[in-house]
Input
Amino acid sequence: RVITKKSLRMAEHHWQRLMQNEYREVRMDHVVWNAMLNVYLKHYKLNAAIDLLQSMSGDQEEDQDASESMVVTQMDHTTYLLLLNGVRLNCAALHAQHDHEQPADGAMNEYAQHNLDENGISKTQMRTLTTQTLTDCVQQLGVPTVEIFGCVLNNFAMLGEVDTCMSVLCLMRHEWQHSACDMHKMQQLGLTVINADGEGEGDAAPNLICYNLCLKAIVVHTEQLLLAYEREEQTPFECRYLDWQWIQSSILQHVKNLDFSSDNKRLFVTYKLLFQIAERKMECMLWWMKYITQHINDDEQVQNMYLSKQYQREVVDILQQTETFFEEMTKEYKFKPHQKMFDQIYKIGFKFSQMYHEHHALFDDMESDP
Output
């Protein structure tokens, strides 16, 4: 539980004794292998974890990089869960370190930082490892469990890959013909081998966590868009993932059909994510207004955008949706908002005020007063 050189040496010492059959009363089953795998992953020793997995399959290869292909034939569901979580935490900790932030799992000591420097993986490598792990899981174990699908969604949500998350979600709902299901993505993930006739139906039906992870993917994707706008790598434009009708039909409509009688705490997280999306969308609108103001005299497309007044409807829609979400949360589900949630709502209003002040001419003929 504590990431130190001593803790790793202690674990490796006992592991060697196990391998030499010195602990005769201990059976070398998946529980023991997974425990050692967890030790390596917690210590950010990803290469050592990969070597251990290859030992499980009896297919040890020398000098194999963590991002290269691997096939392990004796893994159980827990092994796949550990690996999927491990690569995400490894990647997240590395990027938090580069951004001079603390990782989500707490402060990092010098030893952990050293291991991360040697074994840290990029987002591209995390995508590769996640894809390979899921493909292997399907080949070895058949239809993955909802927990494994949840880990996959979490990994791709961290990358902001909404299309991949939605494709996995459609598969879990057995909606192969849904417009959000990208068959190319399914092929990349090795999921096309799962029958579309409902094989494994019920075993991997998406729960609220899965839908929340898709909302998280939209938040991350929007943050990536805002960064691209700031760096002038991309011009502001409409994103279908930020369209409320799309979010409603693809995610929220299915959330409403879930049973919250036993535990509705995660529904609170749903609304927190929706407020985050509304806030990020208002930030996108700020960039949209700025772009219209700068190019209205020399860009015909921008002129048409101005004449259509679509941007006004988008802004009003954000404010109305925020009000709707707040009323649903407090009146229908009786949730009590915390201070951070109020701060999000205040920021949405503040950013509209900023937009209205800086680009007043774009709002002088609004049909309604927001």
Observations:
- The longest helix spans residues 265-295.
